[in-house]
Amino acid sequence: MKQLAQILLIDDEPRNREALSLLLTGSGFQVEAVGTGEEALKVLQQTPYAVVITDLFLPGVSGIDILKRVKIDYPYTNVVLITGNASAETAVESMKEGAFDYITKPIDFEKLKIIVTKALEKSQLVAENLYLRQQLRGKYAFDNIIGHGPAMQRVFSRLEKIVHTDSTILILGESGTGKELVARAIHFNGTRRNKPIIAINCGAIPAELLESELFGHVRGAFTGAVADKPGKFELADGGTVFLDEIGTMPPPLQMKLLRVLQEQEIERVGGRKPIKINVRVISATNADLEADVRAGRFREDLYYRLNVIPILLPPLRERREDIPLLVRHFLQKSCQEMQRNLMSVSPEAMQALESYDWPGNVREMENVIERSVALTDGDRIGRADLPPDIGGLDEDAGDGRIAPRVTEKGIDMPATIAEMERELIRDALRIGNGVKARAAALLGINRTTLVEKIKRLGMQEELSDLRS
């Protein structure tokens, strides 16, 4: 985050400007002083300032004009106005336009120092919040949802259409498909991005506590309610509430949620006064809500309220063309987090990853790649470095040698044989101290055949440090 310059001082009277500048500088503040509003606007275009101190009455561009421009273009900058007329109207107008504070002439310098110190603290806090929001916006940009196949392109097309609406959204998909990532992307790319998004997992909170978590409670509402407490909907006012695992919500609470969606108001547990709110609701489930409606486990009217715009996230097995992209993404992420050189994946390992059905979807893949990066010795992940159920390889009870095993998913026999040949050649060359003739003898083949196999398997660079 770029550090803000501290103070821009604007006063058209040279003596006042110089004196005030010296006093502020002597108190440890960094100050740049200019004589006109026009100069100030030019300086502000080049350098961000935390605080602007300006005389209210300036020739040409006035102090109020500067205040209005700053509030539009520089939200992290606080403005302090200096006026010789201490009228109530002047004070009211300046504060209405967004001034941080004002001070009258003759200036009480100790009071000004206190005002400036508080203004600097507030400006830095606002700048940090803006920076964090920008970081979050970048993290949850649509570009960070990986996928170029037709299934994900359909998702992206729908996201682009709904991001600037306030419609209620239901995200459907198996566990691990990235439902919360999509919910946050909708929020941070939409009109509510400067307000909070608050997520709550309806299945992770006991039913008797869920109502209080969502809607808050008043003091004395139940044992342990020693003070009033706002719920998630109040805390998210102006922003978004993300209700994950919505299908697990108890039926009595479903009725209360329906009323919230219809009336845009909540009642705290134990309270009697409705509280108006303005939130967008995004919910998600890996359950078949239509089946739950038919079975009477989920209210039909609530289902239709939540399902205004559905987004179906495909499981990873239905978008295998995206697997190499995801592998590279998680490989880069894990290597960076573990401070390792960027690793690669062998063709055989990639084939195994693409053939696997991924019941845990993208979340499972992230865990598999993280595990492989942590446990692989070299800079290349081979099929043997993958979990046995993915690599199609099992550990032998004897010497730990991995052995191929045919599963119901089948096996890529040519790729498996090629990987076995690589392992055997590596072992033979290691035992033979890199002497190809000796390695060939250990393998029961002639040296020429060994050399041809090394070329065919693309092992020349890998074995370049061994003696020929």
Automatic annotation (TrEMBL):
Q: Would the keyword Transcription turn up in this protein's UniProt record?
A: yes
Q: Which PROSITE patterns match?
A: RESPONSE_REGULATORY, SIGMA54_INTERACT_1, SIGMA54_INTERACT_2, SIGMA54_INTERACT_4
Under Pfam families, the record lists: AAA_lid_14, HTH_8, Response_reg, Sigma54_activat
Q: Which domain of life is it from?
A: Bacteria
**Which UniProt keywords are listed?**
Activator, ATP-binding, DNA-binding, Nucleotide-binding, Phosphoprotein, Transcription, Transcription regulation
One GO BP on record is:
phosphorelay signal transduction system
Give the Sigma-54 factor interaction domain ranges.
Answer: 145-374
Response regulatory domain segment(s): 6-120
What would be an example GO MF term here? ATP binding
Q: Which InterPro entries match?
A: AAA+_ATPase, AAA_lid_NorR, CheY-like_superfamily, Homeodomain-like_sf, HTH_Fis, P-loop_NTPase, Sig_transdc_resp-reg_receiver, Sigma_54_int
Question: Which Gene3D superfamilies does the UniProt record give?
Answer: 1.10.8.60, 3.40.50.2300, Homeodomain-like, P-loop containing nucleotide triphosphate hydrolases
- Where, per the database record, does this protein carry 4-aspartylphosphate? 55
> Which named protein is this?
DNA-binding response regulator
